[in-house]
């Protein structure tokens, strides 16, 4: 009966694939300040009867109530008023797609959550690039490492070294390089027709993939066909063993099955 239910899910559930999420990298690079803080309030200022501005006010900002992950502004202000763009106002809007993903799940009262702000300073105004809400502490620690490692790579002067280190960063974080990255390094002639990975990078990518970072599939599909096939078959077998599968189990089973179809 359970197998029939899973097979039925192949028809009912949509297949979203392994959509890569690289906007975090762009948000990190475009931000002057990245800060985790929870004591803020939101204010709305009406300009007229059809236009308004929204601000997020942080007051105070100190070592007791905030964590600073990136700071290109020198000293951190003791308080901030951040412009939150609304009504299709366009400020890196293509980046602001994932920040509220946490809101679509129920929060666990036994866990601690944090907000993370990516902030850009333009003249005398501070604007929010991305605002991640209600991040669990473990996830926040992972994002801290992502921010700090990429911020360090950003400072490398040598183009070839920065290119290689950024490729490593993508792999470590289970991401495929974005189009902007590829186009830039094609212009710099670090990339000719396509990215050429070395054997160490391939081995690292396979390890990360087998640890669950399935967004690396396009990079590995041709080189490790048998390993990937085995990975997805084992994943489906493990899901079938679950006594009371949840919606995400059906979703994972469906994706694994359809990836296998695409690989053949």
Overview of this protein structure:
It is a single chain. Helices cover 41% and strands 21% of the residues. A hairpin with a 2-residue loop joins strand 2 and strand 3 (51-58). It is of the alpha+beta class and 264 residues long. The longest helix is centred in the middle third of the chain and has 18 residues, at 137-154.
Instruction: Give the topology string: H per helix, E per strand.
Output: HHEEEEEEEHHHHHHH
Biggest β-sheet strands, sense, barrel:
7 strands, mixed
Strand content: 15-25%
Mean pLDDT reading? 84
Give the end-to-end Cα distance, rounded to a whole number of Å: 27 Å
Spatial strand order of the main sheet: 2-3-5-7-6-1-4
Helix- and strand-based class? Answer: alpha+beta
Contiguous low-pLDDT stretches (5 residues minimum) are 7-22, 93-104
Based on CA atoms alone, the radius of gyration comes out at: 21 Å
Number of helices: 9
How many beta-strand elements?
7
Shape: globular
- Estimated helix fraction: 40-55%
What's the arrangement of secondary structure elements?
Blueprint: H1 2-12, H2 23-30, E1 33-37, E2 40-48, E3 51-58, E4 66-71, E5 80-84, E6 113-122, E7 125-136, H3 137-154, H4 159-172, H5 179-187, H6 199-210, H7 217-220, H8 225-240, H9 247-263
Parallel strand pairs: 5-7
Antiparallel strand pairs: 1-4, 1-6, 2-3, 3-5, 6-7
Short synopsis of the structure:
With 264 residues, the protein is α+β, with helices and mostly antiparallel strands. The chain has helices spanning 2-12, 23-30, 137-154, 159-172, 179-187, 199-210, 217-220, 225-240, 247-263, and strands at residues 33-37, 40-48, 51-58, 66-71, 80-84, 113-122, 125-136.
